[in-house]
Design brief:
alpha+beta; elongated; 153 residues; 6-stranded antiparallel β-sheet
Length: 153
């Protein structure tokens, strides 16, 4: 490749990259903001023969959907289920309280799991309203509840 051709190639590459980065800059300013908060583990006994373990999860609030918190639980249990082919399970409830408005609510799900930690439930949303929201995770079996706080847009 001759020197003038190499120079043109470098110049064209520079212009293309400048155009790509220049075009991407305004889009970055329009991106949404997300707040992810882990729900601490709740130690619990589960339904089954000597079943027990933990349930945890994650919450996310996004400025694109103010007043909503998305929640996903996951579980890890050991033991033997009383139903063949079914994992150990509990009925979990996530209680929430908006510390700024006083609004309260709850969401429940039957959560099962095995030795591998995997999402036990699909994403659910809580209509908490904007503000500081405290969430507490409990189950229908003997357990040690966990709590955390998330700020909702």
């Amino acid at each position: 490749m001759s020197l003038p051709t190499l120079g043109k190639s470098i110049a064209i590459t520079g212009l293309v990259l400048a155009g790509l980065f220049g075009a991407a800059a305004p889009a970055a300013a329009d991106q949404t903001q997300d707040r992810w908060v882990n729900i601490p583990d709740t130690a619990t006994v589960a339904h089954g023969i000597a079943c027990g373990g933990r349930i945890g999860g994650v919450t996310v609030a996004t400025d694109a959907l103010p007043g909503l918190v998305y929640v996903r639980l996951n579980a890890t249990f050991v033991g033997v289920s009383t139903t063949p082919g079914v994992l150990c399970s509990v009925f979990a409830t996530l209680h929430w309280r908006n510390l700024d408005t006083g609004a309260t609510g709850s969401w429940s799900a039957d959560v099962s799991g095995g030795l591998l930690d995997f999402p036990a439930e699909p994403w659910a949303h809580l209509e908490t309203g904007s503000g500081r929201v405290e969430v507490t995770l409990t189950t229908d079996r003997p357990h040690i509840p966990s709590s955390t706080e998330i700020t909702v847009y």
